[in-house]
Amino acid sequence: MNEMEKKQPRAAALLPILLFLVLYLGNGIFFEYIRPEEGQMGFYVVSVVLAFCIALIAAFLQNRGRTFEEKIRTCAAGIGDENIVIMLFIFLAAGAFSGIATQAGGAVSTANLLLSAIPGKFAVPGLFLIACLISMAMGTSVGTITVLAPIACAVAHNGGMSLPLCVGTVVGGAMFGDNLSFISDTTIAATKTQGVEMKDKFRTNIRVALPAALITLTALVLYALFSREAAIGEHAFNIWQAIPYFIVLVLSILGINVFLVLLIGIVLFCAVGTATGSLTYVTALSSMGNGMAGMFETMIVTVLVASIAALMKENGGFEAILTVIRKRAAGKRGGMFGIGFLTAFMDLATANNTVAIVIAAPIAKEISTEYGVEPRKTASLLDTCSCIMQGVIPYGAQMLVAANIAGITSISIMPFLLYPFVLALFVVLSILREKKKA
Questions:
Q1: φ and ψ of 383, to 5 deg
Q2: pLDDT in tens, 226-283
Q3: Which tens digit of pLDDT belongs to each residue from 153-194?
Q4: Residues 208 and 426 sit within 8 Å (Cβ to Cβ)
Q5: Does residue 105 come out as left (phi exceeding 0), alpha (psi in the -120 to 50 range) or beta?
Q6: DSSP reduced 3-state for 40
C-alpha cells in the first residue's frame, strides 16, 4: 500500500484550491464582464501569484494536528521534487531564448519569409500553417499571435475576408505549436511533472495533433478555393534571422536535450543578430534578462502550487478527488477522461494552461498510476486538454491579445476556432481507442 492509499479522503483539504478559484476566477469575471477597468484585462486585475499566496495561507491553517515546522517540511519536499527543479531551470533557459530570439528579429523574419512564399489565394490556410510553424519554433502561443495577428488583419482587410476567421485561424495554429513545441512552458510542465522524456510525449501527442491540424488545413484550403484572392502585401524579412528558428525546430524534433537545444538557439541568435545589426552587446544581454524575468511569475506559481499540492495531498485532498473519479471512472478509459476533464476544468478556472497543468499534474499522476495510464499519455493529456481549453476561452490571454489587436470581441472569434474543436474530438477518439482494462 503506497502513501497515497494510506491517506483518508478529506474534501475539506481542497479548500485552498477552491479559495484560489473564487479569488481569481470570481474577480476575473467581475472585472472583465461586469465592471471592466479601462485599459486593463479583467483576469489580470488580481495577480495569480497573490491568489495562490492566499490559498497557501489557507492550506497552512488546515490540519492543526501538525506543527508549522512539519508543514514547512512538507512544502519543501514538494518544491524539491527533481522534476520541479528541472522544470524551473528550463523555464529560465526558455525565457532567455525567447527574449534574444525576439530582439534579434527572428520571429518577424520567419513569419514574413513563410508568408512571402504563399499565394494570395491560399492566404487563410497559409496563416494557419505559418502559425503552426512559428509557435513550434517559438514555444509561445501569445508571442505567435502578437506577431501574426496584425498580418491576419491586413489579409482580411485586403481580401475582403472575415476578420474573426483570419484571426481565429492564427489562434488555432498558435495553440498547435504551444501544445507540441519542446520549448513551450506547457510541454515542459507536462513532461517534467510526469517524469517522461519530451520526445516520448511528442510522439504520443503528434498522433492526435497532426491529424487534427491536417483536417483543419484541408477545411481552410477548401474555403480558400471558393473565396476571392487576398492581397497579402510585401513583408520584409532577413533569411539569416529566420535560420536559427528552423535549426531549433529540427533539433527539438530530433529529440536533442532541451537545455542543449536552447543553448544552441541562444548562441545562434547572438551570432546572427550581431552579424545583421539587430543586436548589440547591450541589447543581447538585456533581452535575455527580460526574457528570463518574463518567466518569474510562472516559476513563482510553480513553487506555490507545489507547496499547496503537497499540503493538500498530505491532508487527504488528492484522495478525495480520486474517490470521486473512482465512482465514475471505469478502467483505463475512465482514468484518462478524468485526467482530461480535471485539466480542462483547471484551465477554465485559471485561464492559464501552464498553471492548469501544474495544479492538475500531481493528481493526474496518481490517477495514471491507479488506472494504468502510461506517463507519456498522461503528459500528452495534460498538455493537449489545457491547450484546447486555453485556445477557446474568451478570457484567456491568447484570445484577449488577438481580439485587442484586431479590434473585435473575443466572443466573435470563438466560432472560427476550428483547430481546437477538431483537436478535442481527436482526443476523445484517442481515449475511446484505448483498451477498457489497464
A1: -70, -50
A2: 876 655 556 677 889 888 888 887 887 776 777 888 899 899 999 999 999 999 999 9
A3: 877 877 778 899 999 999 999 999 889 888 788 888 899 889
A4: yes
A5: left
A6: strand
Burial group, residue 17, by CB count within 10 angstroms (0-12, 13-18, 19+) = buried
Query: How many other β-carbons are positioned within 10 Å of the β-carbon of residue 32?
Result: 21
Do residues 282 and 51 touch, judged by C-beta distance below 8 A? no
- 407, with CB counted inside 10 A (0-12, 13-18, 19+), is exposed
Residues 124, 223 contacting (CB under 8 angstroms): yes
Tell me the whole-structure pTM to 2 decimals: 0.74
Burial class (CB within 10 angstroms; exposed 0-12, middle 13-18, buried 19+) of 236: exposed
CA distance 214 to 226: 19
CA 352 to chain centroid, in Å, comes to 7
* pLDDT tens-digit series, residues 19-52: 988 888 788 888 877 887 777 766 677 887 898 8
| Amino acid identity, position 265 | G
Nearest in space to 199 (alpha carbons), one of 246, 251, 245: 251
Closest to 124 measured CA to CA, from 216, 221, 209: 221
DSSP state for residue 238 in the 8-state scheme: -
Residue 40 sits at φ, ψ, to 5 deg, of: -135, 125
Q: Identify the pLDDT of residue 26.
A: 85
Question: Distance (Å, rounded) from C-alpha 297 to C-alpha 201?
Answer: 25
Number of other CB atoms surrounding residue 34 within 10 Å: 8
Q: Taking residues 362-377, report their average pLDDT.
A: 90
d(CA 87, CA 69): 26
Residues with Cβ within 8 Å of 334's Cβ and at least 6 positions away in sequence, in order, are 325, 328, 371
User: Which residue in the block uniquely carries the three cell numbers 543578430?
Assistant: 273
